[in-house]
Amino acid sequence: MADVKISQLDTSTPSGDSVIPFSNGINTFKTLASSLTASCIPQGALFNVAQSPNNDHQVINFANGTTEYQVTNMTVTITPKYTASQILVWYDLKGATENVSVVSRLYRSINNQAKQRVYSASLTPYTIGSASYTPNAEGNAMSHSYYAYQIPHTYMYVDNPNTVLPVTYTIWLINPGTSGGQPWVKNVGRWESIYKHATTSNIIAVELAL
């Protein structure tokens, strides 16, 4: 195989030409890449990923059926690169309840402003067979138990915050009943002496081009 020897490399740009000088090529391409608009990004491209795994133990005492309680240390913040991006939010909240219903709700806060519900279910009456029901509460995930069962809350939603400012997602719990109750979240709950194991809860946010 023959060897090629370069005695001199001309890095200047010829007059009237659009050649990028070799010495500045890498920085120039970085600049071009960072200035791409959302319309140039292929559908399904992934820009940012943020997560907040947590296995701390938290006990919540529901005072009534109207007060929401934040799940601590289950917060994720992501800063979108483009306003047109959509954010895939997924949370998997481990825990246990004893004779209480628990509804979890997903909220977002843009640039530390007031929190807003990401999605609200409908309270419209519905029918199953010949029976009619009217929901007394709504949420993104729900569990109920008559004993100390470990019941995870899992929810996934594609959000469109329409901003390039930091977006923070949080999880809040509420008892859809009126008698209070006590869930144990981010861990196995009250009956640790029986189960003797812990699991990790997590919330993940992914910026997507859709």
Key features?
single chain; 210 residues; mainly beta; Jelly Rolls; six-stranded antiparallel β-sheet; four-stranded antiparallel β-sheet; 2 helices; 16 strands; globular
Overall description:
The structure is a single chain. By secondary structure, this protein is mostly beta strands. The protein has a single domain, classed as Jelly Rolls, CATH 2.60.120.1340. The chain is 7% helix and 35% strand. It contains 2 helices and 16 strands. It has helices at residues 25-34, 192-195; strands spanning 46-51, 58-59, 69-70, 76-78, 86-93, 95-97, 100-110, 116-117, 126-128, 131-133, 141-145, 149-150, 153-159, 167-174, 184-185, 202-208. Strands 3, 4, 7, 8, 11 and 14 form a 6-stranded antiparallel sheet that branches. Strand 9 (126-128) and strand 10 (131-133) form a beta hairpin. The longest helix is centred in the N-terminal third of the chain and has 10 residues, at 25-34. The model has no long low-confidence stretch (mean pLDDT 75).
Please give the alpha-carbon distance between the first and last residues: 49 Å
Overall outline: globular
CATH topology: Jelly Rolls
Helix share of residues? under 10%
Secondary-structure element order, N to C: HEEEEEEEEEEEEEEEHE
- The gyration radius over C-alpha positions equals 26 Å
How many helices does DSSP assign?
2
Tell me what the CATH architecture is: Sandwich
Strand content: 35-45%
Number of strands: 16
Give the helix/strand class. mainly beta
Kindly give the count of domains: 1
State the CATH class: Mainly Beta
